[in-house]
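Weekly puzzle thread! Below is a chain. First person to post its structure in token form gets bragging rights.
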Amino acid sequence: MHSTPTQAVVLAGGQGSRLRPYTDDRPKPMVEIPGTGTPIIGHQLSWLAAEGVTHAVVSCGHLAEVLQEWLEGADLPLKVTTVVETEPLGRGGGLKYAAAHLPSPDEPWYATNGDIWTRFSLREMAAFHTERDALATLALARPRIPWGAVETDTFGHITDFIEAPPSPFLINAGVYVFSADFTELLPDLGDHERTTFPRLAREQRLAGFPLPQGAYWRAIDTAKDLTEAAKELAAQRA
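Winning reply:
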């Protein structure tokens, strides 16, 4: 049995209402990162393949046919199966439905939200997951606050202005490692973050993997996120 997953689920059924008009004619994961000519899901699948994934199940919903057509015509570095939710199942139900189509149900698997653009070692995350004997491990990010912050002293004098400081809190980065036994704990309908995850946290079977220093991570939720991602990519290339 593999301790490092070779299979993954990509949740790609969201409507992306905050990304309109980009999502008027395509699902959110099909929105292109400016300057790359490649949709978000293309970057994700390339990353998964580079991390040892050989088979991905892509869960489609909104404008599923657009995503399926692109996947069928693209030169992909791994095998891809698509499944379509005919009715909304919720995030937990969607994960469970997609996981039922994984090629090796008795093996661990990765999962990622379809609007995440990131690069870090999934192999290191899988090793972290195994070392902690977890049923599920979440990648944790520390995003930058979109507003400037103000620092004051104890007397109330302003001492500094900080542009877009990092958040003091870690957040769920939308990338996961799941043991094979996790699948049966998912709800058939509903949100696993309100049911399964709290239960595992109480049982100390839920782990959190902080993204390594310098790892790239961005959730593509708005047009501003697209612009910022393009700027960051240009800076990396420079």
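Puzzle host: Confirmed. Bonus trivia for everyone else. The radius of gyration is 19 Å.
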